[in-house]
Amino acid sequence: MGRARTAMRALCCAIMTLFAAIAAGPALADALPPAGGAPHLAMRLVADTAAPRAGQVVTLALDTRPEKGWHGYWRNTGDAGFPPSFDWTLAKGARADAPQWPVPTTLVVAGLMNYVYDTPYAPLVALHVPAGLAPGTHLPVRLHTSYLVCTDTICVPEQQDLRIDLTVGDGGPADTAAFDRWRAAIPKPLDAPAAYQVQDGKLTIAVPLPASAKVANAYFFAGTPGSLTYAAPQTVTREGDRLLIATQGSPRGAIEGVLRIGKDLGLAVRAAPGAVAATGSGGAGFGWAAVLAAFAGAVLGGLILNVMPCVFPILSLKALHLAKGGADEREARTDALGYMLGAVLTCVALGGLILALRAGGSAIGWAFQLQDPRVIVLLVALTFAIALNLLGRFEVPAPRFATGGGALGSVATGALAAFVATPCTGPFMGAALGAALVLPWPAALAVFGGLGLGLALPFLAIGFVPALRRRLPRPGMWMERLRRILAVPMLLTTLALLWLLWRQAGSLGLVVGVVTMLATAALLIAGGRRQRRGQGFGWSLAVGAVGASVVLAAALTGTAIVKPASADAFSEAKLAQLRREGRPVFAYFTADWCLTCKVNERAAIDTAATRTAFAQHKVAVLVGDWTDGDPVLGRFIQAHNRAGVPLYLYYAPGAATPQVLPQVLTPGMLAALK
């Protein structure tokens, strides 16, 4: 079938040329180049370095400049023409990859759609230089290319022999400005999978793309031959965090191609068969398998959050409440459902706020609230108050989160647990929340709700399974001792927040945090003394504690992080430079408020074994610090289908796309990167 289509295209091209020759008569001879004359596509072979190192990957550019009125063809030519061929003659051991093509444009002639270039363009080819060559070794590069060049009325086959001579050296770059321009025109890989469906003769392709991403003059160029009806019109619409492309076609298997999103800007897309809603469905169309996988990942991620130091004490106290006094079936289930409701509603509310802000153009992600030092101050007050409560310095008057409080208290406790757990992104959770950001909003909110459900699962099990409650220890003085033990992780959480506040707002932030702790302690302990005398806590003291925290937090309004200059700070320009040099790159994205990030850094990244392995393989390390919610980093993280940190990427020399590493790292995993 593929050969038949190729033959038909050649026949169409020949017929077009024949009819044009009959119509043009003598003018055709004037259009053709004379024997030995200049070709209609002026080409030259350029390398990004004339002196590559042994083992380096060199980028070759086929700098092509069409004569005015003429055009060359893309790798899939559309309804007519044939693609260029490349025949390389290289030194022994050298290897050339398939060309990377810039975004083409469309040309319709006599109802036939063509994918062409009518302005200067440059396909890029990765040339792998053999390892072990001595400096000064001659590396001849020869290319014989055959191609079709056309006007609107005639087509002429041409061929050229191009050459360039390289010499093994130090790998110094040459003509970087031109290569930066040519690389920018190559479509960028889209990490998130696309999907398509065919229904009633209509082909709909759904491409995940954040709502904040700017799109202009969108068009899908099918790279898979025969997958689309090329000349059929395309209708491109946005539905939330995806683009829907409606056209005609009958593909078999996956579709590969390029989505144009602006002038000389494109995304490399691969779409697999799946369920896609028609345009105007209000976002209801999506693959249920993907949604269920994201929901399951969120549930597992939420379940793992229960072992975090700021959540575990709250869960433990709620479980002990059921053991204390022997709660009946109805009370246990009410508590469990209330706790779940609070956790789910909080996660859904945070997720909805994220989706709304992202739809407005913000590049925020999970735990975005911890990028504001004022919120950190309020969390310092909250976690320190919980620690004081666990130490017995006062009892919460209403709702009593540690000693019951009925359904309302359970809802408040679940909401509290969900809110203080947001700094963490653990296994399963990161990928699930990243997927949520490219799903239609109803499915996305369901995934965020799954996170809250996972967080509530242990308490649900205790509330609904009597056998588990019977296994809880009987009440006794040990419960008071355990309360004080559980205060330790809450105090550690408070100290961690103080450190984060110092990192975000400097000395002023640290002073405000300490003053907040002192004011909170003074007011809450005073209320505790009233309680021990048999009096009420005192609403004035409770309001004063909350008000003091809010006033102190407001003192940090307008405070901005000043990041120290760092040689390994991530930037896309630095990443591009290292990749041009052929260096392997390990880029990781972290934040001071991300517990998983810090554990990975301590256990796997900042270790002697990893540093030694990276030094041996000359792996460059770049660090993206997202503590302050830098929107540039946010967009880069978002482009890799992640809702937040951690994100770990490894760029192998010459690889078109990075390897996305798991969110839990080991030293052995990093040492194996080459």
Distinct helical segment count: 18
Q: Based on helices, strands and strand pairing, what is the structural class? A: alpha+beta
The helix content, as a percent range, equals: 40-55%
Total number of beta strands = 22
Poorly predicted regions are: 1-35, 278-286, 398-405, 560-565
What does this structure look like?
The chain has 674 residues and is of the alpha+beta class. The chain has four domains: 2-176, Immunoglobulin-like, CATH 2.60.40; 189-273, Sandwich (Immunoglobulin-like), CATH 2.60.40; 288-554, no CATH class; 572-671, Glutaredoxin, CATH 3.40.30.10. It is 42% helix and 21% strand. Strands 11, 12, 13, 14, 15, 16, 17 and 18 form an eight-stranded mixed beta sheet that branches.
